[in-house]
Amino acid sequence: MGRNNYHTSVGDCGLLSATSKAIARLQRASQTFSERQAGCVTSPGIERSAFHPLEVPQLIEESFDQILATAAAISDPFEQAFFVMVQLPYLQPFDDVNKRVSRLAANIPLIKRNLAPLSFADVPRQIYTEAVLGVYELKKIDLLKDVFIWAYGRSAARYAAVRQSLGEPDPFRLRYREQFRELIAELVRARVGWSDVAARIAAWSEKEIVPDDREHFAEIVEAELIGLHEGNFARYRIRPSEFAWRQVWEAR
User: Fold this and answer.
1) What pLDDT, in 10s, does the model give residues 181-226?
2) Contact between 193 and 249 (Cβ < 8 Å)
3) Measured CA distances, 238 to 45, 115, 153, 205, 246 (Å)
4) How far apart are CA 147 and CA 127, in angstroms?
5) How far is CA 31 from CA 13, 91, 96, 100, in A?
6) Which residue intervals define the domain Fido in the entry (predicted)?
7) Burial of 178 (0-12, 13-18, 19+ CB in 10 A)
8) Final residue of a domain: which of 166, 182, 205?
9) CA nearest to 88, candidates 6, 38, 27
10) Structural domain of residue 92, as residue ranges?
11) 99: closest CA among 144, 66, 142, 60?
12) Which residue of 53, 102, 222, 237 has the smallest Cβ count within 10 Å?
């Protein structure tokens, strides 16, 4: 019986938890086959391996649910990540890209805990393949564990370097992020000229910003308005047609 006969949609299987939906989306994004096959719980063969995964759709579904339940019960995010990276490829719940989905899904617990994400960009393909085959053929996780630890060390170091180059976020800007976005978009859409900006900001701030923060808030809004250009106005949810306000602003 061909594997497409086991084709069952994630929705039909009842995999309705947030994690299962996230994994299904990861699978669809990674899928190299047609959209008709994407997001399916099924059972392919394993290249270069005598290991044969489950083929009965009901058992695949039950095992998939059990993997998610067990992962949810694990408190340590690194253990969660490694558990998912081992179990998903071993179950082979999707037509294709099971290993890729497992590597992406391993980032879910890390990102939820605000930890550095995991990347396998520097891992030699041959070593990773041998590590996964060790799980398939021998049910041994030792090599894959070593690969995981090595890859995460590299990923964390790279992530730390990137964060350092970007600098720490401004707490004031973070606190008023939505207010900045709302007011700047409002000023642009209203085509407010330079001479009227200060008064409009002051009037708006009286309703939305605590007194001690109003002066600094106004300074940032004015600086952001001055710095608006074609490459960054979208961050304020401003449409290109609305950015024609720039002509009014430059005529100040």
Assistant:
1) 999 999 999 888 888 899 999 999 999 999 999 999 999 999 999 8
2) yes
3) 49, 32, 40, 21, 12
4) 8
5) 19, 17, 7, 9
6) 21-153
7) exposed
8) 166
9) 27
10) 3-166
11) 144
12) 237
Residue 52 and residue 48: Cα distance in Å, rounded?
Answer: 11
Shortest CA distance to 184 belongs to which of 246, 247, 120? 246
Domain count for the chain, please give it.
Answer: 2
- Find the CATH number of the domain harbouring 21: 1.10.3290.10
Torsion of Cα atoms, 72 then 76 then 82 then 86, to 10°: -40
The encoded tokens of residue 136 equal: 């398939």
Instruction: Verify that 113 and 154 share a domain, yes or no.
Output: yes
Q: How far apart are CA 223 and CA 100, in angstroms?
A: 43
SS3 state at 44: coil
pLDDT tens-digit series, residues 101-144? 899 889 999 988 989 999 988 889 899 989 988 988 888 999 99
